Amino acid sequence: MARDFDDDAPRRIQDANELVLACQRGADERIYVVTTNLVIDAQEKLARRRRLDRIWRAGAAGCP
Question: Residue 2 phi/psi, 5° resolution?
């Protein structure tokens, strides 16, 4: 059976592949943002905890 020249399957396949790649890039970007935010939150919690530990140690040592 001869190929119908009106068939645009190759273009549709390419468009679908581009859409899949775009979705993957979008997902990768979202994962990066969420991971970055989690790292920032963890760093802030650690800094806060260290600050409280210094305050508690200073109080326990009797520093004015």
Answer: -75, 150
Does residue 62 come out as left (phi exceeding 0), alpha (psi in the -120 to 50 range) or beta?
A: left
What is the C-alpha to C-alpha distance for residues 16 and 13, in angstroms, rounded to an integer? 5
- Cα atoms found within 13 Å of the Cα of residue 9, Cβ hemisphere only: 4
Q: Which amino acid is at 26?
A: G
Check: pTM over 0.85? Answer yes or no. Answer: no
Provide the terminal-to-terminal Cα distance of the chain, rounded to the nearest Å.
Answer: 94
pLDDT tens by residue, 29-39: 999 999 999 99
